[in-house]
Design a protein that fits this description.
The structure is a single chain. By secondary structure, this protein is α/β, with parallel strands linked by helices. The protein has two domains: 1-23 and 267-357 and 366-378, no CATH class; 38-239, 3-Layer(aba) Sandwich (Rossmann fold), CATH 3.40.50. It is built from 15 helices and seven strands. The strands form two sheets. Strands 3-2-1-4-5 form a five-stranded parallel beta sheet, with helices on both faces. Strands 6-7 form a two-stranded antiparallel ribbon. A hairpin with a 5-residue loop joins strand 6 (358-360) and strand 7 (366-368). Helix 3 crosses helix 9 (245-254), helix 5 (124-138) packs across helix 6 (142-160) and helix 12 packs antiparallel against helix 13 (312-322). The mean pLDDT is 93.
């Protein structure tokens, strides 16, 4: 495992490629941002919005997928208050046993600020069963749930004939997942190719004994279908000079966002501002850490390093402290939800651990074999 020479991005991130100097795509992109004419880029967004918005004043101009969290709250307010659009918000909700009260309150906070919002809840038992199967097969329960989460917005855009879909960050430019690269920096129509979605076709679920008629909400619209409807996904993050996890969270808190108050060593999150609507994404970040050698804290510090708010050495310290952390209670509640034992959980995780990067200590705990930030680990 090699690290970017500038930040702490590892080359184990799916879809990433470093350049000949050993620099990651996100750092190279940040260099480009220093030369951007942001006024011109804002005008480009306004021109796009004018082209794609509804000509009918009684219809919605754009559609935005929201969770009520830091990114979606800022996007919705920007679309309405800055661009002058009439946005329709779409929130795909977790089952009641998974959804946190914090998540409910944050969506309510957003709606109270003057937005129309359609709530979509896939059948809870199918959702739970697919989570179980995805975890046991891929050691990634999000493998199944990300399909409806990502498909819900373009599906509704197609049904309502709303051509403009506003999204957040560009994973190719801002994280380094080159599989999602579109025709331009703002083109999000290739988001279907991100690592988990793999094109947006969930037929593999049918091979696990799930009937296709029970997973209609999991199917991403076909490319031809989106082209016929004229659907264009636009990454707002491409147009914002200050798009960043922490900046969006600060904006959200000022506008009523409720964040986490758990200790960072319980959630692997030093800021407590992500995955506010449920508690098991953080656990999945722990598993990602054991597979690829990085977790959520790495994403935080990389942004801060690029923006000059943190040194690489300070980033290393935070990553060593919090990447891969997860409180036992989250593992226990997850196992109860998908109906497996904690022993089954760890047996599944153990089979997926990258043993070039981790080994077990005398107590049977996985510990890293690499030094965070070193030129070559493992």
């Amino acid at each position: 495992m090699k690290y970017c020479k500038r930040c702490l991005q590892p080359d184990t991130r799916p879809g990433i490629e470093f350049d000949a100097r050993g620099v990651c795509p996100a750092c190279n992109y940040f260099d480009v941002l220093e030369q951007v004419d942001w006024k011109a880029r804002e005008q480009e967004l306004r021109n796009l919005s004018a082209k794609l918005r509804s000509p009918d004043a009684s219809e919605y101009d754009c559609i935005i997928g929201v969770s009520g969290g830091k990114d979606s709250l800022r996007q919705a307010r920007y679309a309405k208050n800055v661009l002058g659009l009439r946005p329709l918000l779409v929130s795909l909700g977790y089952p009641p046993r998974q959804l946190t009260q914090r998540g409910v309150d944050n969506v309510s906070n957003m709606i109270k600020q003057g937005f129309d919002c359609i709530m979509i809840y896939p059948a809870p038992e199918t959702w739970r069963l697919l989570m179980r199967k995805a975890f046991l097969k891929f050691c990634n329960w999000c493998k199944s749930t990300e399909y409806p989460l990502f498909a819900s917005v373009p599906r509704l855009a197609t049904a309502y004939q709303i051509r403009l879909v506003l999204w957040g960050e560009n994973p190719a430019l801002q994280l380094g997942d080159l599989n999602t690269m579109g025709k331009t920096g703002w083109d999000g129509n290739s988001v279907r190719n991100m690592n988990t979605l793999k094109g947006g076709n969930p037929d593999w679920m049918c091979g696990l004994g799930i009937s296709k008629k029970n997973i209609l909400q999991y199917y991403y619209p076909a490319e031809a279908e989106m082209e016929r409807a004229g659907i264009q996904i636009v990454y707002l993050g491409y147009f914002w000079q200050d798009w960043a996890l922490v900046d969006n969270a600060n904006y959200g808190v000022v506008n009523g966002l409720e964040v986490r108050n758990e200790p960072p060593q319980d959630i692997g999150d030093p800021y407590g501002v992500t995955s506010l609507d449920e508690d098991w994404v953080g656990m999945n970040q722990m598993i990602k850490y054991l597979k690829f050698g990085f977790g959520r804290t790495t994403d935080y510090v990389n942004e801060q390093i690029r923006r000059g708010r943190m040194s690489r050495a300070e980033g290393v310290e935070l990553v060593e402290l919090y990447d891969g952390c997860c409180g036992e209670r989250y593992i226990t509640s997850f196992c109860k939800f998908i109906d497996i034992t904690v022993d089954q959980f760890w047996e599944t995780v153990d089979r997926s651990v990258n043993q070039d990067l981790f080994s077990k200590d005398g107590k049977g705990k996985w510990v890293r074999r690499f030094k965070v930030g070193s030129p070559c680990a493992a």
